[in-house]
Amino acid sequence: MARIVMKFGGTSMAGIERIRAVAARVKREVEAGNQVAVVVSAMAGETDRLVGFCREASSLYDPREYDVVVSSGEQVTSGLLAIALQAIGVPARSWLGWQLPIHTSDAFSRARIGTIDTAALDESLMRGEVAVIPGFQGVADGDRITTLGRGGSDTSAVAVAAAMKAERCDIYTDVDGVYTTDPRIVPRARKLARVTYEEMLELASVGAKVLQTRSVGLAMKEQVRVQVLSSFTGEDAPMADTLPGTMIVGENELWEEIADVERQLITGIAHDKNEAKITLASVPDKPGAVASIFAPLADAGINVDMIVQNVAHSTGSTDVTFTVPAADLPRSLDVLGQAKATIGYEKLVHDTRVAKISVVGVGMRSHAGVASTMFTTLGERGINIQAITTSEIKVSVLIEEDYTELAVRVLHTAYGLDAEVAA
Ligand code: ADP
Ligand code: ASP
Ligand code: MG
What we know:
Distance between the termini: 45 Å
Bound molecules: adenosine-5'-diphosphate, aspartic acid, magnesium ion
CATH class of the largest domain: Alpha Beta
CATH architecture of the largest domain: 3-Layer(aba) Sandwich
CATH topology of the largest domain: Carbamate kinase
Structural class: alpha/beta
Helix content: 25-40%
Number of domains: 2
């Protein structure tokens, strides 16, 4: 008998018919002899609707009350799935974040999971029940409800899997695995049988929202076996333990199974339209100038991503360009406006019509030329590069937003990632 976690995302839980299909899928795993905990998202669109209500009530809403409101979507779907399971003869019980409990930090609206008490969960599983756990929520010291940041149900699922020492954490979604790029943008994207934790971490952090970044970091740290697979399949779909989806694996496991020559240099390409570019013109070219820009931003909790400092002008000044999350742009402008005299820049310009395109692959550790292929390919299409960052297994460029889809498509072809199409 294996212990498994099954996580179902918003589109998989969108409406009673879908929830019935999820219940049937869970029943199959129970009948195969598994002990099952299910982690669920709110119905698709529901969290957006709830966030909208908070904003409408007050643009300066209290994050504690925001969490009370937005966590409710998952309360509804966990209860409904327990009902749907009971209706087909599967004993089931829901366990809200505060009932287990799932302890989190008190960073309301973006809390981090600390520990999960498994006593109640273990007893429920031992009684032969399916435990249904709403994703995205937990409880902070002082018994206030918290949420984990958008897309957080993936992280709930991995954390529950680690706590209950599950054999696998199956993430059921609306695509049948992790692809070389978003299959909704590039129809010729290929499904990957395996991807390493590190690659998935990079891909998620640069925009591949199929998994929340934190969930991948946690899986890597806790060595949780994660599979991404589709919930949109019929009763004759292969069982999850035959691994029909994409497995997230350690690098050793990957190299063991795939001969070096068969490995692609690049594993995947991601895009992110949620960054904004800021340029400070004519900053004094002297020690401490850059610190005077980034220190106040860091103090305000704003994460700066890409940074370019231009060659100094003959006047002893330089231009500094960087990106921040688009949602933090108003606050960034405010902080930089207040620090104008200290920094000593002449002009501040910003642009939200930018996109970050990233290529990721562990193969680039041992191969040169990845970045140059990227720059040449984009150059040939007349796509201008505004900023660049790299890591050991990733190259990212900032381009004009209108070219996003074109850039992803041409790079996908340039790195030989396109799937064969039947003639
Ligand atoms: P869920 O509601 O199940 O959590 P999400 O919408 O959060 O689902 O994530 C699934 C979506 O991720 C897919 O519909 C797909 O458009 C998108 N996606 C982005 N990049 C990738 C990728 N490389 N592989 C697969 N899906 C991707
Ligand atoms: N319902 C939450 C969201 O939409 C959490 C999740 O689905 O992962 O962000
Ligand atoms: Mg998701």
